[in-house]
Design a protein that fits this description.
Largest sheet: 4 strands, antiparallel
Radius of gyration: 12 Å
Strand order of the largest sheet: 2-3-1-4
Distance between the termini: 5 Å
Strand content: 25-35%
Structural class: alpha+beta
Shape: elongated
């Protein structure tokens, strides 16, 4: 099964990239997921379910340690990639 995760970390800072956002991005880039798309107001990653789920755990822990006060995420099964 393949999953897509969409995530944002807060608080936002439009003047500079906050440390928690950098931490989240680095976790995903280092996690071995197949694709990562980083944007100013949201990010997505896609890959094998076990890789994405492990990356989500690491993202939560790393972002909170780096000062995130809120993390929003949504996980979806990639269409056609059932269980």
């Amino acid at each position: 099964m393949r999953l897509t995760v969409e995530f944002t970390t807060e608080p936002f800072d439009l003047d500079r990239t906050p440390p928690h956002a950098i931490a989240a991005r680095e976790v995903m880039l280092d996690a071995g997921v197949d694709t990562v798309d980083v944007g100013p107001f949201g990010n997505t990653a896609e890959g094998r379910a076990d890789t994405v789920l492990a990356a989500v755990d690491a993202l939560l822990r790393s972002s909170l340690r780096a000062g995130a006060t809120r993390i929003s995420l949504q996980v979806n099964v990639v269409p056609g990639e059932g269980r």
